[in-house]
Amino acid sequence: MTKSNVEKQFGKNANAYVQSEIHRLGKDLQKLIDMTEMTGKEKLLDVATGGGHTANAFAPHVHEVVALDLTKEMLNEAEKFIQSNGHKNVQFVLGNAEKLPFPDNSFSIVTCRIAPHHFPNIDTFVQEVARVLIPNGQFLLDDNIAPEEDELDDFYNTVEKKRDYSHHRAWKKTEWMKLLEKHQLFVHEMHRFVKTFRFDPWTERMQLSKVEKLELAKYMGNASDKVKQHFHVVEQADSIESFQGEAALIKAVKRNKNSNGSRGLVLYLMEPSII
Known about the structure:
- The protein is 40% helix and 26% strand.
- By secondary structure, the protein is an alpha/beta fold.
- About 2% of the residues have low confidence.
- The chain has one domain: Vaccinia Virus protein VP39 (Rossmann fold), CATH 3.40.50.150.
- α8 packs antiparallel against α11.
């Protein structure tokens, strides 16, 4: 059901995602490029490319990009967007993030931005990323994350699900790190940043009805003081003005058979954004 929900939701909102400021202009996009080691000879896979913004940003820096998405309408919009920017080294492939249609050791870089919270099985997804990466290949992950405390985690994921029925789960930082290492992907760098969500444009992007917006605002308004303080919920009359969430950018490197799997330095960076 989750996969069909994703196809339905993103199919009807494909052009909106291409035009979305957070997807198109987010500071995290440049940070991803800065975190990645590139010589210009790499073959890169962008999983769940969405509007194509990540594939578009990396295209000038690598030899070849494969942009993959589950939704045909989204892939078509991504292709129009990327080709309008003059990039000729991008291929477009319809496919599932949890069953990548590529041989082992096919890519030197895999990226996935603002998408894994839609995946029903991230264990399978990460296993597939590790499979298609060459030894010492880089995985660049960028997604919303849940707080470590269960009460806060439950609130955030409930809010996201009420806003977007295709949302599956935003995972904790510790859950991501454990899962990456399970599949021999070792964290070399991590940046954490805060997102301020403006309630009206944030809900309008998902085409919520007035009733749905009121229900979501009521749920947030009825949260405990502890929850409201953590997420910096700003209320106005019978609605919500804004609240804050959290995202992480993680660079992990696939373990080489001849390496000991040691990690580099893990860094944290506070970088607020408003969406």
